[in-house]
Amino acid sequence: MSKIVILTGAGISAESGLGTFRAENGLWAQHRVEDVATPEGFARDPKLVVDFYNARRAQAADAAPNEGHMALARLEAEYDGEVVLVTQNVDDLHEKAGMRRVIHMHGALSGALCGACDHRWDAPRVMAPGDACPACGRGTARPDIVWFGEMPYHMDEIFDHLAEADVFAAVGTSGNVYPAAGFVAEARRFGARTIEFNLERSAVGNLFEDYREGSASWTLPRWVDEMLGHAAPR
Ligand code: APR
């Protein structure tokens, strides 16, 4: 059975109104990474960090999946092989689009994590610094987000999928952050065909055999039609 592994980044959610990171007015132009996306930043000022994720959680709650998310859900539902979606995004737009298998390698806004006992639970809509962990009772709740310097989640599973991929696609990611940026080289090592969907070539764009320029909400539905045999390959 053939397997398609898809990696998504902030670009697929851009047309749903959620900001990307490295665009001119992106999140990292508005906030310092070291302040809101590192364990050190959280230790220094937990309220700043918790408020940053509360705002992103509220924005994501109001966001709707776009045609790009819907296309990937259609591929998963109709493809006669296996579709595995790995996302760097922490929003739930793939789930809202009806996707069943979503691997959140950078965590999710919907999750809370205990910094003391590693217990995980559904995050409240608004988290407060010092919220108690429902398991151990200590005031060590934090967003269940993978920060810089921390190990992304599900890496063994992801590398197993890359080793079996017949097709590897990357959508809306700048290719600046590892290990995700290294997935295309890993998939190629095992003979996968590779394709990138972006407004412009990413930092690892040269490693992709195929490139579809444009917004994911436009390029993905057409690619999915091709993969499902509804349209002639380009
Ligand atoms: N369609 C397709 N691609 C798009 C669109 C769109 N409508 N809009 C923007 N893009 C592309 C941009 O060209 C860019 O290459 O999406 C990419 C977004 O890049 P980044 O902002 O760097 O986001 P991402 O690659 O997901 O960042 C990876 O970095 O800061 C960390 O943890 C954070 O998960 C994030 C990781």
Automatic annotation (TrEMBL):
Swiss-Prot/TrEMBL catalytic activity: N(6)-succinyl-L-lysyl-[protein] + NAD(+) + H2O = 2''-O-succinyl-ADP-D-ribose + nicotinamide + L-lysyl-[protein]; N(6)-acetyl-L-lysyl-[protein] + NAD(+) + H2O = 2''-O-acetyl-ADP-D-ribose + nicotinamide + L-lysyl-[protein]
Subcellular location: Cytoplasm
Record's keyword annotation contains Cytoplasm: yes
Species whose genome carries this gene: Sulfitobacter sabulilitoris
UniProt function note: NAD-dependent lysine deacetylase and desuccinylase that specifically removes acetyl and succinyl groups on target proteins. Modulates the activities of several proteins which are inactive in their acylated form.
Superkingdom in the source lineage: Bacteria
Cofactor annotation remark: Binds 1 zinc ion per subunit.
Domain remarks in the Swiss-Prot or TrEMBL record: 2 residues (Tyr-53 and Arg-56) present in a large hydrophobic pocket are probably involved in substrate specificity. They are important for desuccinylation activity, but dispensable for deacetylation activity.
UniProt-recorded name of the protein: NAD-dependent protein deacylase
Keyword presence, Amino-acid biosynthesis: no
Active site: 106 (proton acceptor)
Binding annotation for substrate: 53, 56
Binding of Zn(2+), residues: 114, 117, 133, 136
